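Document type: protein sequence-to-structure record

Subject area: structural biology

Format: plain text, a pair of labelled lines:
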Amino acid sequence: MSGLIIILIVIVLLVLGVVGWTVGQYNSLVGMRNRVQESWRQIDVELNRRYELIPNLVETVRGYAAHEHNTLEDITRLRNQAASLASHEGATPSAQRAQAEEQLSGAVRNLLVSVEAYPDLKSNTNFLELQRALTETEDRIAAGRRYYNANVRNYNTKIESFPTNMIAGQFNFQKAAYFEVADHARAATDVNFGEISYRGGQPQGQQTPQALPQQQSGTPAMPADWGQGQQAPQGQPQQYGQAPQGQPGQYGQAPQGQPGQYGQAPQGQPGQNGQWPQNPQN
């Protein structure tokens, strides 16, 4: 009888342990889901503020840059599309909403860049105020997105991990969507260095010859780009031809009175890689 009681006690403890662990994991998932929803509400406030600023920005730009008609229409269309999706969203955004908001962000950035060509618009007080407000809003959206995505990552990892995935499936915990940055926003400016011309009118793709330092006083330095087999001017070293008189040669024959590197050695001096001089001293 006592053995049966012990077994029953062990079973009860195991059941209580499993129930307690399940309750703890469930409460953890609820807390993480609430943090995701709260962080998204902070972003949603800034997005709605942007909805209010964009119509005034469009009207201000239209008065100074009427031929930016297509750009202004695109911004208005994307703004209305994002606002429509926001009115039907729940506690967290859908992937479609996130994509629409990022397209709207890109359109606003492109418009603010394009107005650099209009000095009158850049000096307009109303435009400057709208530009400042939009820039601050975009900065807060970017900061809120980083915080939101961090919470989404932790929440989704918890849902997908074993054994909490069984609890998530049992109580219908759904994965949250990231508020991703679009590819066009990540792309860096493409700088084509091939369009930069060399100084002094040097053609593209050619190197400017470098002048050698002067070897003798009063003698100008000569460029070190002589072709193989050509003779160098007197008094100057040569790279690939014969060496001048009185100077060591690099690849040709050595001058008289100086040791040669690769050719025949001068008379009365030992050669490095060529023949020994006549009458070498023992």
